[in-house]
Amino acid sequence: MVCGSTQGIGRACAAELAHLGASVTLLARNVERLKAEAAALPRSVPGQEHHYFAADFTSMDAVREVCRAIGESGRTYSVLVNNTGGPAGGPITEATEEAFVGAFRAHLVANQMLTQAVLGGMKGQKYGRIINILSTSVKAPIPGLGVSNTIRAAVANWAKTLAGEVGGHGITVNNVLPGYTDTERLKALINAKAQKSGQSVEAVTKEMLATIPAGRLGKAEEIAAAVAFLASPAAAYINGINLPVDGGRLQSL
């Protein structure tokens, strides 16, 4: 199951896992896009099937309905990719209570609910991979993303705690930390910064690229490749880590 899978990194993860032979369930809020993406996913092995559930993560009732549907479907999941669009940017001093509460529910609480929905099946097959798409802000907060920095760190610690509890069942829990990746989310953040600072989009992008040793933005497919590795049997002894995929931008180990 891949969340946020009709665009950006989530979409790339779903495509990569399907290409490698997985039957993928997409989870996002737009039904028409879900139908189109599910139909477009590769079918590379016999018996491979793709499905989808629709839910808006701003509604806990909608997430509960998906969890109920998971149980009723009779399907078990070996891999859960938790991925939700980041909270709106802005300084932490200006963030509202509602912004923090909404982000906490859409990211951490939704992750918890979906994990509980699939955990029984993973324990039963003694194999499971829970992979959370977070941000390099887990290691170094990003200026202007106050709510996101806070919530991403909370999810990272939730994941580390979970990793310690389920590791004995053949289940791993890891976080992938994308750096500046060429997605609609990043374009929106660049545009917002350009408007606020009075700089051009090109100037803001140039400043961003100057902080990346690789000298370019990441590709969603490169994040998906890291996710696919962590989802595989080859990563069975990797548990409870934060894996940056950022072109070397982070200055910490």
Describe it.
The strands form 2 sheets. The chain has a 4-stranded parallel β-sheet, sandwiched between helices. The chain has a 3-stranded parallel β-sheet with strand order 1-2-3, with helices on both faces. 48% of the residues lie in helices and 13% in strands. It has 8 helices and 7 strands. The model has no long low-confidence stretch (mean pLDDT 96). The longest helix has 29 residues, at 97-125. The chain has a single domain (2-180, 218-245), classed as Rossmann fold (3-Layer(aba) Sandwich), CATH 3.40.50.720. It is α/β, with parallel strands linked by helices. α1 crosses α8 (220-231) and α3 runs parallel beside α4 (97-125).
- What is the count of β-strands? 7
Radius of gyration: 18 Å
Question: Roughly how many Å apart are the termini?
Answer: 30 Å
Biggest sheet: strand arrangement: 4-5-6-7
How many DSSP H or I helices? 8
CATH topology assignment: Rossmann fold
CATH superfamily: NAD(P)-binding Rossmann-like Domain
> What is the average of the pLDDT values?
96
The CATH class is identified as Alpha Beta
